[in-house]
Amino acid sequence: MKLDKPVTGGPCWTELGTSDLAAAKRFYEGLFGWRAETDPRQEAGGYSIAHLGDAPVAALTPLYQEGQPVAWNVAFAVPDADAAAAQVTEAGGTVLVGPMDVFDVGRFAVAVDPTGAGFQLWQARAFPGAGLLNAPGSLGWVELMTREPERAVDFYTTVFGWSVNAAERYTQWGIDGADFGGMVTMDDKFPHEVPAHWLPYFAVVDVDLTAADATEAGGTVLMEPTSVPDGPRIAVLRDPQGAMFGVYRAADEK
């Protein structure tokens, strides 16, 4: 079973912090068919929401803090951001920002797990998060890259109550019977300077064509399109400003 809308404990939103907002808009609008609209309020700081049709699917933002990396971030839905932030701290993580209100749309916090991967907490009010999940051009899977998998399992199961489906080659995260993400152990193939991180995957109709389109638009293919045994076809890409993201097509989608 796949998530088709945000649920408590699951991924509900993803946003890109980028060094060139205009260029990022052009790249992702061309790649996924998004329509990005920038909040005109000065206090919104250039926050732009990308839509597919009328559905919000992701956000594109300027870099708000000095030293902030160009990267995609993943948010998880919680009923109470303050209580969740306290759980993060108790479980060995660190809260970097918030919890704080975002106008009337929700309350959020930015945190780091004990292995070094950053993520966000989102308590919805007027804005529940992504209007589409697992549809072409929308968020469909999130993957934790970490060098300390056992520590990560302890942390996320404590904070969010996720189920863990651990196979020999891959661990999957689930909530209420739906797997929504996985975990990859970073080995010696990963450069030492690459920190633990969450990687969003967007659903696409054709992985190979999307990878080719990304390259033509100035992006880079980091992992060539690959079919996972008994699983999806995937690729990992990097946009022209340096943010990494994945694309996939499920095996049961012919």
TrEMBL record:
Record protein name field: Hydroxylase
Signal peptide: none
Domain VOC as annotated: residue spans: 10-124, 138-250
Superkingdom as given in the UniProt entry: Bacteria
PROSITE patterns for the chain: VOC (PS51819)
